[in-house]
Backbone:
């Protein structure tokens, strides 16, 4: 790679990750660490979405399908088969990736694009949700409870910081991966397919293969987020794992942060969840009681404002304000 | 037990089964009609604007809450409220399309999807903030009255909804086929540049179409409320059903939406009868996925 450490894109990633890694030394409160851990899980799920939609232009409205697959796989592997969660994790990620391949094969082979693809992914997530809610194997509506046994060997940490650092290492890996992909031949094909699929195909790009590769990676990454979620809360049910809200969050974060940028999902997740907390606290203070849903109203407004005025999200705005700011976009 | 007794018993249970089957079938058709009405708005918007309105479900929820408030606060019967809410929702839909969706999405399909998703998030959660997640219903004197047809007992409000849906569909067809506005809508749907060249105000027609689609939801809400419950998430249940119907009937086809609605109503009712309530929903999604993946032009071959 040409360019120095700071300009080739890897430098900023390492700096941001290092800054995030020392953060727990500043805040030791459990609630803050819980919040930060959750932000990283959402970031990871959003990074999966961003790879497929931001770079590949395939807008999924059903990333909960992968998130839930990862969450249920790691939970059921322990509860039903007594597998160690560390062994179950790669299994869960592979299952998410496989789900991506199958879902992608079915929908891309049928040449579903745009709104049609969004609808199909949404429907898949709903089918999984209903099945998980009805099947005895998945614990039905009662969900799955992962037995509490706090041991690092059992993927349960006494120190909340350990979980945070683990989640951060996943996010860091995907940041590097995304940046690497953006600058690779595969990344160029992906962007070509996003910009004009017919033209890309005319130039000899195997669009189906490129999209399949993207959705496989995307499914695996988002499934990792689901697995982390299950291990963090030690409980999942169909609505938590496959609920439409997961799909929406995986899509909101990159759009608000900067769709198709390396840092978009991270910036968006921090901003979104931070703003959510502030809104909730503000209205609780204002009204003397919680106002459910008000944070989501703000998210909705933010989504529309972003689409209308900041098509490249916060990262795009920053770049417009400071032309020298480079975030390693393809 | 003798052979004759056993034969008699199985005969009797067959009659019973037939009765249950017929009543499930009839109920499916009645519910399907309202589904069709919801899908009608969606398919009309798709057929003309070529966009999928993700806010359709949330708008239906909003309309149902409007019916609820009209009844609780002003004592208005849903069947009277329909004459106030329908024009109101037409205006709302018109304004939403013309002053929010179009300017915000810069004419990009992906953006329209996201903007309508944003609208649905706002509506759904604003309702949650105002009404909380409680499930509510309204009490009308005819809520539980039934009409007897042969051996079947049909819920009166559902029969009214069925008839009203057919009437609305007929009216809509008349509007599209006969009126000047209808002609303009069809012209824009076919070829918007050509329509614009003929002096048709495309932006206005888009907004009118969106308004009509939204108005259909107000009518559907008034027809639903006497027998349905409402909570801030109720629209989600309807919207995927509506999408399925639209896909099944062929995107943009009004006849397709009607037929698709009735089919889905029956499928839901019968699969609920044979597979139980929670798995019954699966039938709808499977139809949805199979049609989308293997026959995206829909059963009736409208151009997708």
Residues:
């Amino acid at each position: 790679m040409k360019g120095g450490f700071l300009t080739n894109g890897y430098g900023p990633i390492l700096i941001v990750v290092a800054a995030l890694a020392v953060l727990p030394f500043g805040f030791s409160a459990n609630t803050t660490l819980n919040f930060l851990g959750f932000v990283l899980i959402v970031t990871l799920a959003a990074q999966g979405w961003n790879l497929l939609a931001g770079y590949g232009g395939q807008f999924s409205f059903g990333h909960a399908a992968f998130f839930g697959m990862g969450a249920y796989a790691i939970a059921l592997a322990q509860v039903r088969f007594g597998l160690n969660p560390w062994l179950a994790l790669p299994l869960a990620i592979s299952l998410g990736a496989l789900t991506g391949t199958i879902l992608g094969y079915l929908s891309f082979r049928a040449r579903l694009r745009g709104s049609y693809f969004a609808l199909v992914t949404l429907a898949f997530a709903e089918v999984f949700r209903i099945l998980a809610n009805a099947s005895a194997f998945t614990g039905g509506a009662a969900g799955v409870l992962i037995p509490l046994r706090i041991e690092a060997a059992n993927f349960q940490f006494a120190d909340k910081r350990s979980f945070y650092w683990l989640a951060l290492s996943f996010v860091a890996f995907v940041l590097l991966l995304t940046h690497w992909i953006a600058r690779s031949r595969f990344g160029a094909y992906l962007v070509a397919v996003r910009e004009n699929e017919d033209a890309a195909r005319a130039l000899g790009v195997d669009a189906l293969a490129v999209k399949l590769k993207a959705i496989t990676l995307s499914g695996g990454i988002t499934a990792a987020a689901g697995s982390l979620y299950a291990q963090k809360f030690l409980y999942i049910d169909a609505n938590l794992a496959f609920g439409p809200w997961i799909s929406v969050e995986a899509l909101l974060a990159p759009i608000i942060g900067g769709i198709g940028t390396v840092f978009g999902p991270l910036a968006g997740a921090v901003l979104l969840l931070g703003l959510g907390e502030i809104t909730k606290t503000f209205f609780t203070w204002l009204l003397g009681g919680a106002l459910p849903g008000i944070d989501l109203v703000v998210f909705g407004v933010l989504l529309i404002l972003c689409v209308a005025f900041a098509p490249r999200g916060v990262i795009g705005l920053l770049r417009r304000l400071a032309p020298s700011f480079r975030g390693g976009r393809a | 037990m003798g052979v004759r007794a056993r034969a008699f018993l199985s005969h009797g249970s067959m009659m019973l089964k037939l009765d249950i089957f017929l009543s499930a079938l009839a109920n499916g058709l009645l519910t399907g009609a309202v589904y069709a009405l919801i899908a009608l708005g969606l398919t009309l918007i798709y057929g003309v604007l070529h966009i999928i309105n993700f806010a359709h479900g949330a708008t239906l929820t909003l309309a149902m809450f409007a019916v609820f408030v009209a009844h609780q606060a002003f004592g208005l019967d849903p069947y009277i409220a329909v004459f106030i809410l329908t024009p109101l929702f037409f205006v709302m839909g018109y304004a939403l399309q013309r002053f929010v969706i179009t300017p915000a999405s810069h004419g990009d399909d992906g953006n329209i999807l996201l903007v309508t998703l944003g609208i649905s998030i706002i509506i759904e959660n604003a309702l949650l903030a105002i009404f909380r997640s409680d499930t509510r219903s309204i009490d009308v004197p005819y809520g539980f009255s039934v009409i007897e047809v042969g051996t079947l007992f049909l819920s009166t409000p559902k029969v009214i909804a069925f008839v009203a849906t057919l009437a609305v569909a007929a009216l809509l067809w008349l509007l599209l086929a006969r009126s000047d506005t209808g002609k303009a809508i069809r012209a824009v749907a076919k070829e918007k540049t050509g329509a614009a060249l003929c002096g048709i105000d495309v932006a206005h027609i888009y907004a009118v179409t969106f308004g009509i689609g939204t108005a259909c939801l107000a009518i559907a809400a008034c027809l639903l409320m006497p027998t349905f419950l409402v909570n801030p998430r109720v629209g989600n249940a309807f919207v995927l059903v509506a999408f399925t119907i639209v896909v099944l009937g062929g995107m943009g086809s009004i006849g397709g939406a009607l037929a698709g609605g009735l089919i889905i109503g029956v499928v839901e009712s019968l699969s609920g009868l044979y597979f139980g309530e929670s798995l019954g929903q699966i039938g709808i999604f499977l139809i949805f996925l199979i049609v989308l993946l293997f026959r995206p032009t829909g059963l009736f071959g409208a151009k997708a």
In short: The interface with chain B takes residues 57, 59, 61, 106-107, 110-112, 114-116, 118-120, 122-124, 126-127, 130-131, 133-134, 244, 248, 251, 255, 291-294, 296-297, 299-301, 303-304, 307-308, 311 of chain A (CB under 8 Å). The two ends of chain A are 14 Å apart (CA to CA). The mean pLDDT of chain A is 91.
